[in-house]
Amino acid sequence: MKRRIGLLALASLPALAFIAMPLVGLFSKTDLDQVCPLLTCPPVTNALWLTATTSGASALVIVLVGTPLAYLLARGRFRGKRAVDTIVDLPMVLPPAVAGVALFSTFGRTGMIGRHFAPDFTIPFTAVAVVMAQVFVSAPLYIRQARVGFLGVSPQLVQASRTLGASHLGTFWRVTLPLASHGLIAGLVLAWARSVGEFGATLVFAGNMQGVTQTMSLAIFTAFEARQQMSAVIVMSAILVAISFLVIIITKFVLEWRSRADEAASILG
């Protein structure tokens, strides 16, 4: 058994090294003396604030609209389910620029939907467009994980709740949702992380206007394209990686703590 694990560990080293080495290289080049000055620099603080607010808004929208769809795909039986499932997955494989063009073609001033609101109300090149781009590319990650979470809930428990007199909605809130919460939380973290790093669709649909639509990813791209102050580019990249890492690791600890608490409760019960 130990030999098998050793062989698997050895075979896993190339993949682990390929993932870890760029991150190590990034932080090895990071000048810590520039972190505080950059965090007080208006363009960086504006980009950080916009990234935080838009990714938070995107996460909220994804949960509200993605949870019912994930439950439908997990429990529903209807004609065309495979087509719906494929459409949900499609944004994950679309090139980011194509996603931006698709959003612009739909919600732009001359788009399929946007033309009905123009010129009184325009979406492109606004913070709303940033949120929409993030939701479009990130929602499938949440829906996939949430669907798995719902599939993991025993139908017998749901049926028992209904037998005891609970309504469909009451059963969903009190039984299904808590039992599927691990999958929902994991999917939400993945979707949030994807929103934080969203670049291509945002650039095409929302633009790259400082203080308006310029997120951290776009600020890094702008500074890198100018080929000026590469040390600042590296520091901004490291800040974004560090924030994402902290959120993911905290979520993992919370999920593990909840798993142990649930196991202890089941044993005591």
List descriptors.
269 residues, mainly alpha, MetI-like fold, 78% helix
Order of helices and strands: HHHHHHHHHHHH
Overall CATH class: Mainly Alpha
For the record, the CATH architecture stands as Orthogonal Bundle
Largest sheet: none
The fraction of residues in strands falls at: under 5%
Structurally, the number of domains stands at 1
Q: Describe the oligomeric state of these chains in a short phrase.
A: single chain
CATH H-level name... which superfamily?
MetI-like
Give helix % range: over 70%
Rg, Cα atoms, Å: 22 Å
Helix count equals: 12
What can be said about this structure in brief?
With about 270 residues, the protein is mostly helical. It has 12 helices and no strands.
